[in-house]
Amino acid sequence: MGMNIHVLRWPKSFCRFVCRIVCKRLKTSVALLLVFSLLYLFIWYLRQPAPPEYITEMAQRKDLRQVVEAVGEVISEKDIKLQFPITGIVDKVHVAEGDTVIKGQELARLRSSGLAADVNGAAAQVQAAQAQLQELLEGTRPEEIAVREASVANKRASLEAEREALKTAERTLETSQRKLEILKEEARVSLEGYVSTARSSALQYLSTALTAINVMDDVMNGVDLQDAFVKYEPHEFQRIAGELQSASSLVDADMGQASSVRDYKQAITILALARDHVTDLGTTLNRAYNTVSSLSITPSFSNDDREDSKSDIATQRTNVQSAQSALESAHKTIRDAAANFDTLIAAEEKTVGSAEGARDEALADIRTYETALRTEEAELQLLRAGSRKTDIDAARAGLNQYVAQLQRARERFQDTIIYAPLNGTITKVNLKEGELLSTSFASDAAITMLGESPYRVEMFVAEIDIPKVQLSQSGSIELDAFPNTKFLLTVSELDPAATDRDGVSKYRAKLDFTDQGDALRIGMTGDAEIYTDFRADVVTIPGRAVMMGEDGGDVVRILKPDGTIEERDVVIGMDGAGGDVEVVRGVEKGETVVVLVKS
User: Fold this and answer.
1) Of 254, 339, 479, 492, which one is least surrounded by beta carbons within 10 A?
2) Does residue 136 surpass a pLDDT of 80?
3) What is the 3-state secondary structure (H, E, C) of 409-470?
């Protein structure tokens, strides 16, 4: 039967309508999804924390000067009191009252041979440090490398020679050990019969001794004999019984050792022991015989009983004495037979010991030469590599340190001399040559003079800064009346006691002008500074970059090229002008340090 299939067909207009609706809704959904995605990304961006902003400075290598700053005021003071800042013996006084002097003229000095030696020593250290730095800068000379190469070759040759000596010592040791083993084997084979005989003899005669001990035990345990001993010789009875018991133990032990004898040395040893123990037993038997002979007759111990006991003891004593003689003879026989072998073996053992000593000495020498060779090769590599930057920097830092020491030595030496700070007339001299200036003299002026110009600078230094200030230090002042003009100064006076300034304790310092000029007026003020210390060619960073670490030490934060921060321990030296500080160790020139972090 046939089947008719009818296909449902939609009108074209209806299909186009459905497609328009679907496309319109799809576009709307995509647009909404895009809007919500952009909104989400915007909100996420707003909630992200802002990256920190670093305020940084680069570490620099430069000269650093330490200064003490304060407001200075021009004052009028014609009378100038001059004093030594240290004590000592007056060496020379060059002026008298009424003398006219000029600025810089030497007025008096103290004995200063020790301080002069310090200056010369510090100058020598500077020269040595300069030479060392120059040597590093110039590098290694070819002649030095050649000398080191020759030394390396010499050490290598010595090492090879010692290795050959070790081989010779080992061959000698091996030969001696082989000969020693052969001698011991020959002795074992040759004396094997003697060992067997010695073993048999020892067992035989020890058995005789053991039999004698057993017989003596029976004799001593007789009731009648014990009764006589108790009455007349109780202590001797205890002694003989104890010796017999000890002898029994020793003989039993000797028999056990004799049964296990395997070589002639053991045989000689056990024969000697057996002989000695049997000899001691014979002594005990002889004492027992003499004691029994001296015992008195008792009702239970007749003369016949005593004679029977003496006869038993005498028989065993004879047997023991015979055994002792036989053991002595056996011991001498095997000892004489082994004497030649012992001599040869002892000589060869000495040879082995000498060979071992030579080997050990060669090994020790090899270790010594290997260490020396490694050291020489390492030093040669250093010479070939030349000077490292760190070595040069260390040498330069050492030179700076010695320069600073020289400067301090010169300053201490200058403290022994009084110079005229300006032109004027000497009004009083309180010094005599050879006079000892003590600490009590510090309150009096050594020399007083009247200056031609009345102007000086007075400044009040904070308590924290006054330890840095010393007489004769230089400084300057920029007066408000003369902007951008610095007048050079020299510290000439320091008050020993503090002065109250607006409720704050400060110390007054007076400074003399190096060149006053005609424009100065009393009451002029300005920013004054005293140069208290100096470091040449050192690494510096801002003092604000230094923080306190967890352990209380100084640390800085280093901004690395990849943007990360490294916290590093540092050693800080001198504080300088402008807030910079010296870095002794921990930061190199060109590194970037973080001064401030802005969140």
Assistant:
1) 339
2) no
3) HHHHHHCCEEECCCCEEEEEECCCCCCEECHHHHHCCCEEEEECCCEEEEEEEECCCHHHCC
Query: Which pLDDT band holds residue 583 (cuts at 50, 70, 90)?
Result: very high
Strand partners, 476: 488, 529
Q: What is the pLDDT of residue 7?
A: 43
pLDDT band at 529 (very low <50, low <70, confident <90, very high): very high
Q: Residue 76 corresponds to which tokens in the numbers above? A: 């009028």
d(Cα 539, Cα 357) in Å, to the nearest integer? 59
Count CB-CB contacts under 10 A for residue 407. 16
H or E segment and range at residue 107: strand 106-110
Q: Are 391 and 80 in contact (CB under 8 A)?
A: no
Cα–Cα dist 216/211, whole Å: 9
Helix (H) or strand (E) holding 235: helix 234-259
3-state secondary structure of 76: strand
Per the listing, tokens 């299939």 go with 5
Compute the half-sphere exposure of residue 382: CA atoms within 13 Å on the CB side of its CA: 10
The pair of three-digit structure tokens given for residue 365, joined into one six-digit string:
């020498």
CA distance 417 to 168: 77
The label of the residue with tokens 């700076």 reads: 400
Helices (runs of H) and strands (runs of E) counted in the chain: 9, 22
DSSP state of 96: -
Phi, psi of 572 (to 5 degrees): -95, 140
Listed in sequence order, the residues at least 6 apart from 576 whose beta carbon sits closer than 8 Å to its beta carbon are 64, 65, 66, 67, 535, 540, 582
| pLDDT for position 211 | 94
Strand partners, 488: 476
470-503 pLDDT per residue, tens: 998 999 999 998 999 999 999 988 988 888 888 8
DSSP class per residue in 492-558: EEE-SS-EEETTEEEEEEEEEESS--S---TT-EEEEEEEEEEEEEEEEEEGGG-EE-TTSSEEEEE
- Is residue 598 pLDDT above 80, yes or no? no
Average pLDDT over residues 568-580: 87
Residue 1 to residue 24: CA distance in whole angstroms: 49
Structure confidence by residue, pLDDT tens digits, 275-297: 999 999 999 999 999 999 988 88
What's the confidence (pLDDT) of residue 461? Answer: 93
First-to-last C-alpha distance (Å) of the chain: 91
CB 493 within 8 A of CB 472: no
Reply yes or no on whether the pLDDT at 552 is more than 80.
yes
DSSP E strand stretches across 8-78: 53-58, 60-76
* DSSP letters spanning 255-267: HHHHHT--SHHHH
Structure token pair of residue 539: 């690494």
519 and 571 in contact (C-beta within 8 Å)?
no
- According to DSSP, the residues that pair with 557 across neighbouring strands are 567
CA-to-CA distance for 252 and 245, rounded, in angstroms? 11
